[in-house]
Design brief:
Layout: E1 5-9, E2 12-15, E3 27-32, H1 37-49, E4 53-56, H2 68-80, E5 85-90, H3 94-101, E6 108-110, H4 114-122, E7 128-132, H5 138-150, H6 157-165
Parallel strand pairs: 3-4, 3-5, 5-7, 6-7
Antiparallel strand pairs: 1-2
Length: about 170
């Protein structure tokens, strides 16, 4: 099985060329609740400086809000193929990942270190990353995002597992 595979929707996995060593640019949807707002703004600026296309789905302040209102639209946009990747943030990242994973075609993982970001991409072809602002430093968040964006899906035995998740 080709190790360089990319899923575009549930059950559909297409071959792609091996990723370059340098970071490629992506279209990225990003959203947070009030507890993830500061890091969302930091990550958004970081991504734009790297040449990524970013759409911010909110929130726009640290005023208390309900995370599903901002996370679901991110996940839906990624699942529809409007964006290649999604990043969602909250206090812990757990609720945000739960909301994102309710959308068919989304594979979102909470990552609190770079190794988890590698596994999210390499083993699960994660298309959505969830971060908890209360659990990691800003520097760690940026390193996790960069690692996640530069890690390719390994395919192979992991592809068969993804097909089982999708019920294929």
């Amino acid at each position: 099985m080709n190790a360089n595979l990319k899923s575009t929707r549930p059950g559909a996995y297409l071959a792609r060329p091996p990723p370059a060593l340098a970071m490629q640019t992506f279209t990225i949807a990003i959203g947070s609740d009030h507890a993830g707002f500061k890091y969302k703004e930091l990550i958004k600026a970081h991504l734009l400086a790297q040449g990524h296309t970013v759409r911010d789905f909110g929130t726009d302040s640290e005023q208390p809000c309900d995370y599903p209102d901002f996370i679901r639209p991110v996940a839906q946009a990624v699942a529809r193929g409007d964006y290649e990747r999604g990043i969602v943030l909250g206090g812990s990242g757990n609720g945000e990942a739960i909301v994102a994973n309710r959308i068919v075609g989304i594979r979102c993982g909470v990552c609190w270190n770079e190794q988890l970001a590698i596994w999210n991409r390499a083993h699960n072809d994660g298309n959505c990353l969830s971060l908890g602002e209360r659990t990691i430093t800003a520097e760690e968040a940026l390193r996790i995002v960069d690692t996640w964006l530069t890690t390719a899906f390994e395919g192979g035995r992991h592809l068969a597992r993804l097909r089982k998740i999708d019920g294929v």
